[in-house]
Amino acid sequence: MSRIYKLSLLSLAINIVFSAYNIVISCITRSWWMLTIGTYYAVLSVIRYTVLRCKKENTEFIKRFTGILLMVLSLTLAGTVVLASVQDRGTVYHEIVMISIAVYAFTKITLSSVNLAKSRRCSSAKVKTLRNISFADAFVSIFSLQRSMLVSFGEMAKGTIKIMNIATGTAVCIIVALLGLNLIHSTRHSKNAD
After folding, report:
1. Which of 70, 78, 86, 150 is most buried per CB count within 10 Å?
2. Contact 4, 130 (CB under 8 A)
3. Is the pLDDT of residue 6 over 50?
Protein backbone atom coordinates (compact mmCIF):
# COMPACT_ATOMS: atom_id res chain seq x y z
CA MET A 1 0.00 0.00 0.00
CA SER A 2 1.53 3.30 -1.05
CA ARG A 3 2.27 6.16 1.36
CA ILE A 4 -0.18 8.44 -0.47
CA TYR A 5 -2.96 5.85 -0.16
CA LYS A 6 -2.29 5.36 3.58
CA LEU A 7 -2.30 9.12 4.22
CA SER A 8 -5.52 9.48 2.25
CA LEU A 9 -7.15 6.72 4.30
CA LEU A 10 -6.06 8.48 7.49
CA SER A 11 -7.47 11.79 6.18
CA LEU A 12 -10.72 10.01 5.28
CA ALA A 13 -11.02 8.60 8.81
CA ILE A 14 -10.33 12.03 10.35
CA ASN A 15 -12.91 13.66 8.02
CA ILE A 16 -15.57 11.10 8.99
CA VAL A 17 -14.93 11.58 12.72
CA PHE A 18 -14.86 15.38 12.38
CA SER A 19 -18.05 15.35 10.32
CA ALA A 20 -19.87 13.15 12.83
CA TYR A 21 -18.64 15.31 15.73
CA ASN A 22 -19.92 18.51 14.09
CA ILE A 23 -23.28 17.00 13.18
CA VAL A 24 -23.84 15.59 16.69
CA ILE A 25 -22.79 18.87 18.35
CA SER A 26 -25.05 20.80 15.95
CA CYS A 27 -28.02 18.67 17.04
CA ILE A 28 -27.21 19.32 20.71
CA THR A 29 -26.49 23.06 20.38
CA ARG A 30 -28.77 23.77 17.39
CA SER A 31 -25.88 25.46 15.60
CA TRP A 32 -26.42 25.88 11.85
CA TRP A 33 -22.71 26.58 11.45
CA MET A 34 -21.66 23.22 12.89
CA LEU A 35 -24.34 21.43 10.85
CA THR A 36 -23.14 22.96 7.58
CA ILE A 37 -19.47 22.27 8.40
CA GLY A 38 -20.35 18.70 9.39
CA THR A 39 -22.26 18.24 6.14
CA TYR A 40 -19.37 19.75 4.16
CA TYR A 41 -16.95 17.25 5.68
CA ALA A 42 -19.41 14.38 5.12
CA VAL A 43 -19.59 15.21 1.40
CA LEU A 44 -15.80 15.62 1.29
CA SER A 45 -15.49 12.18 2.91
CA VAL A 46 -17.75 10.64 0.26
CA ILE A 47 -15.68 12.28 -2.48
CA ARG A 48 -12.39 11.09 -0.97
CA TYR A 49 -13.77 7.55 -0.50
CA THR A 50 -14.99 7.48 -4.12
CA VAL A 51 -11.59 8.57 -5.41
CA LEU A 52 -9.78 5.98 -3.27
CA ARG A 53 -12.07 3.21 -4.54
CA CYS A 54 -11.97 4.16 -8.22
CA LYS A 55 -10.29 1.89 -10.70
CA LYS A 56 -7.59 3.12 -13.04
CA GLU A 57 -9.88 3.20 -16.09
CA ASN A 58 -12.36 5.51 -14.31
CA THR A 59 -9.86 8.14 -13.10
CA GLU A 60 -10.79 10.80 -15.67
CA PHE A 61 -14.48 10.46 -14.81
CA ILE A 62 -13.69 10.62 -11.08
CA LYS A 63 -11.52 13.70 -11.64
CA ARG A 64 -14.33 15.49 -13.46
CA PHE A 65 -16.91 14.31 -10.91
CA THR A 66 -14.73 15.54 -8.02
CA GLY A 67 -14.17 18.88 -9.77
CA ILE A 68 -17.91 19.39 -10.18
CA LEU A 69 -18.60 18.44 -6.55
CA LEU A 70 -15.88 20.80 -5.29
CA MET A 71 -17.51 23.62 -7.25
CA VAL A 72 -20.91 22.71 -5.75
CA LEU A 73 -19.32 22.60 -2.28
CA SER A 74 -17.92 26.09 -2.86
CA LEU A 75 -21.49 27.30 -3.38
CA THR A 76 -22.52 25.56 -0.16
CA LEU A 77 -19.62 27.26 1.58
CA ALA A 78 -20.84 30.59 0.25
CA GLY A 79 -24.13 29.92 2.03
CA THR A 80 -22.16 29.08 5.16
CA VAL A 81 -20.27 32.37 4.92
CA VAL A 82 -23.55 34.27 4.70
CA LEU A 83 -24.93 32.26 7.61
CA ALA A 84 -21.81 32.90 9.70
CA SER A 85 -21.98 36.64 9.04
CA VAL A 86 -25.67 36.86 9.94
CA GLN A 87 -26.08 34.41 12.82
CA ASP A 88 -23.14 33.73 15.08
CA ARG A 89 -19.63 35.02 15.60
CA GLY A 90 -17.90 31.71 16.30
CA THR A 91 -17.30 29.38 19.21
CA VAL A 92 -15.15 30.50 22.13
CA TYR A 93 -12.59 27.87 23.16
CA HIS A 94 -9.96 27.75 25.89
CA GLU A 95 -6.48 28.98 24.86
CA ILE A 96 -4.93 25.49 24.91
CA VAL A 97 -7.70 24.10 22.71
CA MET A 98 -7.30 27.02 20.30
CA ILE A 99 -3.54 26.54 20.09
CA SER A 100 -3.94 22.83 19.33
CA ILE A 101 -6.60 23.58 16.69
CA ALA A 102 -4.29 26.20 15.15
CA VAL A 103 -1.34 23.80 15.03
CA TYR A 104 -3.56 21.16 13.41
CA ALA A 105 -4.99 23.60 10.83
CA PHE A 106 -1.63 25.10 9.89
CA THR A 107 -0.07 21.63 9.65
CA LYS A 108 -2.88 20.63 7.26
CA ILE A 109 -2.43 23.70 5.07
CA THR A 110 1.37 23.32 5.00
CA LEU A 111 1.27 19.62 4.12
CA SER A 112 -1.47 20.18 1.54
CA SER A 113 0.52 22.99 -0.10
CA VAL A 114 3.69 20.90 -0.26
CA ASN A 115 1.80 17.87 -1.57
CA LEU A 116 -0.10 19.92 -4.13
CA ALA A 117 3.21 21.26 -5.47
CA LYS A 118 4.62 17.71 -5.58
CA SER A 119 1.56 16.41 -7.43
CA ARG A 120 2.30 18.75 -10.35
CA ARG A 121 5.20 16.46 -11.22
CA CYS A 122 3.08 13.32 -10.82
CA SER A 123 1.15 11.93 -13.76
CA SER A 124 -1.43 10.06 -11.69
CA ALA A 125 -4.92 11.58 -11.99
CA LYS A 126 -5.90 9.90 -8.72
CA VAL A 127 -3.03 11.54 -6.80
CA LYS A 128 -3.82 14.98 -8.26
CA THR A 129 -7.48 14.57 -7.32
CA LEU A 130 -6.64 13.51 -3.76
CA ARG A 131 -4.29 16.49 -3.42
CA ASN A 132 -7.00 18.94 -4.49
CA ILE A 133 -9.41 17.37 -1.99
CA SER A 134 -6.81 17.74 0.79
CA PHE A 135 -6.24 21.37 -0.15
CA ALA A 136 -10.01 22.10 -0.04
CA ASP A 137 -10.17 20.36 3.34
CA ALA A 138 -7.26 22.41 4.73
CA PHE A 139 -8.68 25.77 3.66
CA VAL A 140 -12.02 25.12 5.31
CA SER A 141 -10.12 24.21 8.49
CA ILE A 142 -8.36 27.57 8.32
CA PHE A 143 -11.71 29.36 7.93
CA SER A 144 -13.18 27.51 10.94
CA LEU A 145 -10.06 28.25 12.96
CA GLN A 146 -10.19 31.94 12.11
CA ARG A 147 -13.84 32.23 13.17
CA SER A 148 -13.06 30.76 16.58
CA MET A 149 -9.78 32.63 17.08
CA LEU A 150 -11.38 36.02 16.54
CA VAL A 151 -13.76 35.50 19.46
CA SER A 152 -11.45 33.42 21.67
CA PHE A 153 -8.48 35.82 21.70
CA GLY A 154 -8.87 39.51 22.34
CA GLU A 155 -11.82 41.81 22.21
CA MET A 156 -12.52 42.52 18.57
CA ALA A 157 -15.64 44.45 17.63
CA LYS A 158 -18.55 42.47 16.15
CA GLY A 159 -18.41 44.50 12.94
CA THR A 160 -14.71 43.77 12.46
CA ILE A 161 -15.25 40.06 13.14
CA LYS A 162 -18.04 40.02 10.54
CA ILE A 163 -15.79 41.68 7.92
CA MET A 164 -12.94 39.22 8.64
CA ASN A 165 -15.30 36.22 8.44
CA ILE A 166 -16.78 37.42 5.15
CA ALA A 167 -13.35 38.13 3.62
CA THR A 168 -11.78 34.84 4.68
CA GLY A 169 -14.90 32.83 3.86
CA THR A 170 -15.15 34.37 0.39
CA ALA A 171 -11.46 33.63 -0.27
CA VAL A 172 -11.96 29.99 0.80
CA CYS A 173 -15.04 29.65 -1.44
CA ILE A 174 -13.08 30.98 -4.42
CA ILE A 175 -10.12 28.66 -3.72
CA VAL A 176 -12.35 25.57 -3.43
CA ALA A 177 -14.16 26.53 -6.67
CA LEU A 178 -10.79 27.01 -8.41
CA LEU A 179 -9.61 23.60 -7.20
CA GLY A 180 -12.73 22.06 -8.74
CA LEU A 181 -12.28 24.05 -11.94
CA ASN A 182 -8.65 22.90 -12.08
CA LEU A 183 -9.74 19.25 -12.01
CA ILE A 184 -12.35 19.79 -14.72
CA HIS A 185 -9.90 21.73 -16.88
CA SER A 186 -7.17 19.08 -16.51
CA THR A 187 -9.70 16.41 -17.57
CA ARG A 188 -10.47 18.35 -20.75
CA HIS A 189 -6.76 18.95 -21.33
CA SER A 190 -5.95 15.23 -21.03
CA LYS A 191 -8.78 14.39 -23.46
CA ASN A 192 -7.39 16.85 -26.00
CA ALA A 193 -3.94 15.33 -25.58
CA ASP A 194 -5.28 11.84 -26.47
Report:
1. 70
2. yes
3. yes
